[in-house]
Amino acid sequence: MIHSVAIRILLGSCFLAAAMNLVHAQSNTPGGMPPPPGMSLTESAAMRFPQPVRVGDLRGRAVLRPVPSQDVLGRVREVVRDRDGRIMVVVDFGGFLGFGARLIAVPVDAMVLLGQDMEIVAFTPQQLRKFPTFSPSGTTTVAGDTVIKVGLAKPSH
Amino acid sequence: MRSLFRPDVVPDTAILDDHQPLIRSLERRGLIRGSLSLGALALLTGCDVKRPESVESALLAISRLNDDVQALLFNPNKLAPTYPASMILRPPKFNAYYDVMDVKPVNGKTWRLEVSGRVADKRHWKLQDLRALPQTSMVIQHICVEGWSYIGGWSGPTLRIFLEHVGADLRAKYVAFKTADDYPSSIDMATALHPQTLLAIQYGGETLADPFGFPVRLRTATKLGYKNPKWLTSIEVTNTYTGGYWEAKGFPWFAGI
What we know:
The complex is a heterodimer of chains A (157) and B (257).
Chain A: H1 2-21, H2 41-46, E1 51-54, H3 55-58, E2 62-64, E3 72-81, E4 87-93, E5 102-107, E6 111-114, E7 117-120, H4 125-129, E8 140-141, E9 147-152
Parallel strand pairs in A: 2-7, 6-9
Antiparallel strand pairs in A: 1-9, 2-3, 3-4, 3-8, 4-5, 6-7
Chain B: H1 14-18, H2 20-25, H3 30-34, H4 38-45, H5 52-73, E1 114-117, H6 127-132, E2 136-143, E3 149-156, H7 159-165, E4 174-179, E5 185-188, H8 189-192, E6 197-200, E7 202-203, E8 206-207, E9 217-220, E10 232-238
Parallel strand pairs in B: 1-10
Antiparallel strand pairs in B: 2-3, 3-7, 4-5, 4-10, 6-9, 7-8
């Protein structure tokens, strides 16, 4: 445990150094931009070339903030359908080094795939903090071998 | 206390900032980069570091030397590590010099691949012509200069088989590419003939999806990610150096891994 915390801190500082160093390496336009004003989540997700992905492959993924420092907002715990049938990603959100996190449900159309990670592009951390804590009642878990479509973004650094 | 050896007039530190990409491109020479200070630059150029051109040409000279050394060290028979198919990341990671919303999909039905330069047969290629060539699959790591990587599974004809098929002059120096997204690129012939350099038309056993370069992209296991142009529209065999998109901005051309 202590080992992994040390690695995290080390990685964190490496990332910081890297972010300061390579201001643009491959970025002319930033990745993971929020949806344009007035556009629905579904419409904006459709513009991000949604790709098939196994739900089981999403569990445990880091959820990043689409900024150069790529802060880890949480981890994917589960994928569910809410009462209206919308696919929601249940994220272990917030906290510090794994303590004090709580579950929130983020619409999949507000998120993108970023290689082995995911990003929340449509909500800021301030908005996410106001999300209600996820309650499983009325939702159904999406099975691990189900294939859903999720949009893409380029790295934000 | 202020150092006794500190000169009265110090060079403008903005000079290092102005050349960030070039300095970064020297990453494989960690020692040199580590020692790259304004003072060292002044020694290197032997002239006024306030002249940005002189700094740039000195850095580019190191980068070119680095390219030559890498080309010399390149072993055309040495294979990059491969991985089991279970490790393929599905879907792969998207990257370009613009965000995904600006991807312009290519129509595979009307798409043609131009072949030019030192080749016997300059007929244009259709997607089914590439499919008709013997196919090779490889599960390799994609390593980006930015520091990230992922394992991907790619299939298609090797570039070697393609070049042999069009009667290319295999002693030419370069194979140059043009793409639908205006991302020119070029590689050395030794890498073009390497068994892990593919004209990839499939990912993970499926047709390559639009954001990853449909209908065909270059996929080479022995170079950094930015040497793998997507949405290819033209292949030229040439003895003339044509550089590439990031190379024109100061990134190393050989970019071997």
